[in-house]
Amino acid sequence: MIYLDFAATSPVNVEAIRAATPYLTTDFANPSSTHSSGRRAKAALNDARERVAKLTSAHSSEVIFTASGTEAINLALSGISLAQPAGRRIISSPTEHQASLAALNFLHQFHGFQIDWLEVDKFGVVSPDQLETLLRADTTLVSLMCVNNETGTIQPVNEVASICASLNVPFHTDAVQAAGWMSLGFNNPAISALSLSGHKFGAPKGTGALLLSRDIACEPLIHGGNQESGNRSGTENVAWCVAFAEALSLLPDVEQEGSRISKMRDWFTTTVLADVPGSSLTGHATDRHPAIASFVIEGIHGASLLSELDRMNIQISSGSACSSEHEESSHVLKAMGYDDNTAQSAIRISLGHTTSMDELEATAAALQRAVTDLSLYR
Ligand code: PLP
Predict the structure, then answer these.
(1) CATH 3.40.640.10 domain locations along the chain
(2) Nearest-CA neighbor of 159 among 132, 180, 121?
(3) Can you give the C-alpha Rg of the chain in angstroms?
(4) Chain-centre distance for alpha carbon 206
């Protein structure tokens, strides 16, 4: 089987599970218990928090463990917006992940926030100039993803963050796809909050973290025993927090690995564009995630192509794994100006650290075959 869907999820790093196992078995105690077993669990949790802080250039008091990237994003968007005493406006982009779009819709429907949308160009990139025209004194929050999960397009997050900081408007970024591939830069004081998801980089599913600047107020989503400094109540999943920290610490150097994998991705992209009739790249040609190649293929139904490749034991995606079950055509591509039919022809190939050239060569050949077969039945 060839797996090229690492942006949907990655295999769990066995070292992460090894590090976590004692906190599921021998040292299983509740970290809030004051006996020695509880103190050992608490020490492991603190250590995991310190490690995540160090690896992301945050302070340990700025790390809030969550149970997913989706939860981290919801906590950032709702928590920061609802904690603001005045203002009912949020700025974001239409190509965000469903986790953000649905949270924004909730804030609009149930709390009366107005959402101001940044347009994207044909590559899916927002314009900092448009942000300047939309920002107002009563803007509560700006949220923009680092890198798009469907197209791999990188957003000008640092520039956007600086514009927000100049007006003292909090800025959140969904860095779920960036972790492990781009430096996270929480040392940039203009970034107020940053969301992470563990299963994208070798930690188990159901792990995540929100990095939240100490000077930003946040209303918790989950109320109870005030764990995670009151930001997220509920007994902490010590083992999964340890696994999250361990997996993050085991990631290869982003520069070296990014350059190695992007060369493989570029070979794949060039081969597909040359050999697969009607194919074109979506997203930005150069400012893109090193491991994501995304295409539309004229006259082909993306879902049928996926099934055909699956039959050949090759697993790729039509875009966002979270929405592809429900969504007929990608909201991301539509926001970039693609029509419905073209957007339905989208496929995404995402490489992992273990991907080999042999796998890419086999996939490019299979893709060409599958597209030819499907074209014959049109
Ligand atoms: N944001 C982006 C950009 C994603 O790609 C995903 C998952 O695909 C999420 C958020 C949601 O993360 P999780 O699956 O941990 O809830």
Answers:
(1) 14-249
(2) 132
(3) 21
(4) 14
Q: Is the CB of 149 under 6 A from ligand 1?
A: yes
Q: How far, in Å, from the CA of 153 to the mean position of ligand 1?
A: 15
289 lines ligand 1 (CB under 6 A): no
The residues of the chain scoring below 70 in pLDDT are: 319-327, 377-378
Residues 118, 128: contact at Cβ < 8 Å? no
* Nearest CA residue ID for atom 5, ligand 1: 149
Are 195 and 172 in contact, with CB atoms under 8 Å apart? yes
**Which residues of the chain are in CATH 3.90.1150.10 domains?**
2-8+253-375
CATH of domain 14-249: 3.40.640.10
Ligand 1 contact, 350 CB (< 6 A): no
* Beta-carbon contacts of residue 119 (< 8 Å; ≥ 6 apart): 94, 126, 127, 130
Residue 45 CA to residue 23 CA, distance in Å, equals 10
Query: CB under 8 Å to 236, separation ≥6 — which residues?
Result: 31, 45, 65, 227, 228
- Specify whether 322 is catalytic: yes
- Residue whose pair of structure tokens reads 């769990």 in the numeric block: 12
Q: What is the Cα–Cα distance from 98 to 102, expressed in whole angstroms?
A: 6
Q: What is the pLDDT of residue 232?
A: 98
Of the candidates 72, 75, 89, the one whose C-alpha atom is nearest the C-alpha of residue 139 is: 89
Contacts with 43 (C-beta within 8 Å, 6 or more apart), sequence order: none
Q: Read off the DSSP letter of residue 22.
A: G
Å from CA of 67 to ligand 1 middle? 12
For residue range 283-323, what is the model confidence (pLDDT) as tens digits? 999 999 999 999 999 999 999 999 999 999 999 998 655 55
Whether pTM exceeds 0.85:
yes
The domain made up of 2-8+253-375 has a fold known as Aspartate Aminotransferase, domain 1 (3.90.1150)
Q: Which two tokens stand for residue 329?
A: 């055509």
Pairing of strands 89-92, 139-143: parallel
Torsion of CA 355, 359, 365, 366, to 10 degrees: -100
